Amino acid sequence: SSNAMWGGRFAAGPDAIMEAINASIGFDRRLAKQDIEGSRAHAAMLAAQGIITDSDATAIREGLLTVLSEIEGGTFPWRVELEDIHMNVEARLKEIVGEPAGRLHTGRSRNDQVAVDFRLWVRDQCDAVDGALVALMTSLIGQAEDGADWVMPGFTHLQVAQPVTWGHHMMAYVEMFARDRARFADARKRMNESPLGAAALAGTSFPLDRHATATALGFDRPMANSLDAVAARDFALEFLGAASICAMHLSRLAEELVIWSSAQFRFVTMSDRWSTGSSIMPQKRNPDAAELLRSKIGRIFGANVALMTVMKGLPLTYSKDMQEDKEPTFDAADHLMLGLAAMAGMIADMKARPNDLRVAAAMGFSTATDLADWLVRELGLPFRDAHHITGSLVAMAETKGCDLPELSLADMQSVHAGITNAVFDVLGVDNSVRSRTSYGGTAPENVRAQIARWKKDLS
Ligand code: ARG
């Protein structure tokens, strides 16, 4: 049989495969709450403008609440042949309230309807992600507070570079996740305009009050161009862009946790709650949550590319291609939220191993730069010469199989006669980090100041 919505024009119903490729109800039912919110705002506005009667609007608005409670209660009769969330809700509304249901779609199209639903959904996600980011930042700050002055190796090229503090390393991620928050907030601000009332694409001859529906739905204003309103999906792409960058940050931290929890590093012990054992190797404690997090990030990047690809080259305005905007966005949002929660939990529960960190911090001639700086400061050498002298001392220590502080004063003086015993003060890792007091440097006093700043910012 032909479709109830456009049966006037159609004699035959769709092929079964057409129905399968066309239907979005399998996934866009997640927009139910937003769809009903949008419809309720639209109905109230139609009545306020005298386009439908107050009693029809009341019937529609109350009927929609019944529909919502059926959906939330799991009793809603979903029907694939009704394609999508919009038609499922409207058809059920008709069963519940009868004739007034047919007036709801006045001055509206599924094109502006889906645009408003999806915008509301993505906007909610921005808020949810923001909360999850705050929780993760709070976990990181907790770690930083515990170990503001624990010394650990800082790396470049994953080769030992200079000693840094555990707190400084944790706070580096706090900075990254704070920028992620700002990106989501910025995207949210820009997406917070209402497409409702753009109708199919051209606007409508009904005297709609688009400002009223925009306000009712928490938007800052209606979108100014009806063609843009139904065609735009850059709001979802901005969400996915911000999600991708945030996911990239998560994957870097996840990778560090995997490395740090290995027997070769022993920087941290991951809690049992985020680890698994092996069915054959009894000693095993695998950082599975971190590994899964590292890899799930791919789905988020994939979603970004998928939606970019859906949208590229689409002529204005709406094309059915755009129905493919939802699944990748839902999947990315779900996995980002899961990843943020898992990371917050892992970070809160992990135990750093300050002694192992400290031992590792001294390996690999990590204070060579301190030695070179000392030669500049105390002996007035040009930095390039100091670099060369220090390089010779590192080579000497390497040949002797010892660390820099284990060279004797005589060894040192054989390379440069001006070196004195005072040099040994700067070769210790604690002195090294304590000396890095430049703004943004790793000195524990700096780290504590940053912790205080961020705690204030987040409270
Ligand atoms: N299910 C559709 C989507 O997700 C709703 C909009 C349909 N509009 C249309 N003209 N077919 O994009």
From TrEMBL:
Localization per record: Cytoplasm
GO biological process, one term: L-arginine biosynthetic process via ornithine
Pfam families per UniProt: ASL_C2 (PF14698), Lyase_1 (PF00206)
GO cellular component: cytosol
Domain Argininosuccinate lyase C-terminal: 365-433
GO molecular function: argininosuccinate lyase activity
Enzyme class: lyase
PANTHER family in the cross-refs: ARGININOSUCCINATE LYASE
Coiled-coil parts of chain: none
Matches recorded under PROSITE patterns: FUMARATE_LYASES
The keyword Lyase appears for this protein: yes
Xref: Gene3D superfamilies: Fumarase/aspartase (C-terminal domain), Fumarase/aspartase (Central domain), Fumarase/aspartase (N-terminal domain)
This protein's pathway: Amino-acid biosynthesis; L-arginine biosynthesis; L-arginine from L-ornithine and carbamoyl phosphate: step 3/3
Record NCBIfam families: argH
Name the record gives this protein: Argininosuccinate lyase
Similarity field: Belongs to the lyase 1 family. Argininosuccinate lyase subfamily.
InterPro entries linked: Arg_succ_lyase_C, Argininosuccinate_lyase, Fumarase/histidase_N, Fumarate_lyase_CS, Fumarate_lyase_fam, Fumarate_lyase_N, L-Aspartase-like
Catalytic reactions on record: 2-(N(omega)-L-arginino)succinate = fumarate + L-arginine
Originating organism: Octadecabacter antarcticus 307
Sorted UniProt keywords: Amino-acid biosynthesis, Arginine biosynthesis, Cytoplasm, Lyase
Enzyme Commission no: 4.3.2.1
Upper lineage: Bacteria, Pseudomonadati, Pseudomonadota, Alphaproteobacteria, Rhodobacterales
Amino-acid biosynthesis keyword on record: yes
Domain Fumarate lyase N-terminal, first and last residues per copy: 8-302
